[in-house]
Amino acid sequence: MSREDILSKVRTAFIAVLEHENFQLSDETTANDVDGWESITHMMIITEVEKTFNIKFKLMDLMNMNNVGDLLNCIESELQA
């Protein structure tokens, strides 16, 4: 699966949780850039992403995620495992 395909599915997960599409996602995007992306919705987004890709993130991976690029890197890593 290409990085663009992964990003598209991640965006769909964000839309499902946040219930709006008023944002752009790039590797540098953080919670500060997306309206409604707060601590509670963050965990909901992570859960939605795990369901979407049928993966489970490791706690250390979650703790080291600082932006969408880190999230995409973790997804790629889990899909290759």
The tally of beta strands, per DSSP, is 0
Beta percentage is: under 5%
Total count of helical runs of at least 4 residues = 4
Poorly predicted tracts of residues: none
- As a percent range, the share of helical residues equals 55-70%
Largest sheet: none
Radius of gyration: 12 Å
Query: N-to-C terminal Cα separation, in Å?
Result: 13 Å
Order of helices and strands: HHHH
- Report the mean per-residue pLDDT as an integer: 96
Query: Given the C-alpha coordinates, what overall shape results?
Result: globular
The chain-level structural class is: mainly alpha
Structural features, described:
By secondary structure, the chain is mainly alpha-helical. α1 packs across α2 (39-53). The chain has helices at residues 3-18, 39-53, 59-63, 68-80. The model has no long low-confidence stretch (mean pLDDT 96).
